[in-house]
Amino acid sequence: MNDRIFAFILRVRICGENAVFSIVDTMKNMRFEANLPVGLISSNYLLFRHLLCHNKVAMKLIVGLGNPGTSYEDTRHNIGFMVVDKLAREIGTGSPVWEEDQKRNALVAKIGGVIIAKPMTFMNNSGIAVASLASYYKINKVDVWVIHDDIDLPIGKIRIRKGGGTGGHNGVDSIIKSLGNDAFIRVRLGIGRGKKEKVGEEKGDRERHRSVVDFVLSRFTQHEAGDLKKLIKHGTEAVRIALTKGLDKAMNRFN
Description:
Elements: H1 3-13, H2 23-29, H3 31-34, H4 38-43, H5 45-53, E1 60-64, H6 79-91, E2 99-101, E3 106-111, E4 114-119, H7 126-136, E5 144-150, E6 158-162, H8 170-179, E7 185-190, E8 197-198, E9 207-208, H9 212-216, H10 225-245, H11 247-254
Parallel strand pairs: 1-4, 1-5, 5-7
Antiparallel strand pairs: 2-3, 3-4, 6-7, 8-9
Helix pairs in contact: 6-10, 7-8, 10-11
């Protein structure tokens, strides 16, 4: 689907209090791509709005997890940041405008009825920002979607899940504690565990994985560049499908 048309449909379909209904102007700019006469669009404004919004959906808070600061850029733990950066570019009408919300300690991009956020609290305190944003925008816990890394999934794999435990992820643990329940949606992005490394120098020494902390704070290798690119692409696509066609469709596609 053309990105401009996708952005238009998303903005109109999500009929939250911040929804954008500049249908006529938007469609005039897209009339050749949409192959619809401007006069028809202008005279049937309410009809187009009804057709696109008949399945009203609640405002969504989509959170990508990661650590702020240049020293953490492009690390495995920041894959959530990478996906929401791409998502904001794709569903917006141009370059995303990230606003610094100092009260809620997050970077926020508002696109129609979707709030995209990157907590600036560092990973282990992500819940503070998420709970504050959900409260401020009056978003139900089931409409909070969290995108994060998962070492228990092979690199490139994606799993979408409703509720559940922490899976050993400190950011998810913080969100559960701050929201008071685990009802939010998780988009788990597989980063794998890496190759085992030899421990010691003597013959017979065993091999083991690097510590979890060292591994998730490491950067993807040049050999993994292709897998990373696909992971960001497919992670973004999964969220797009969930927004426009529903979570079940996305789960059936990627789980």
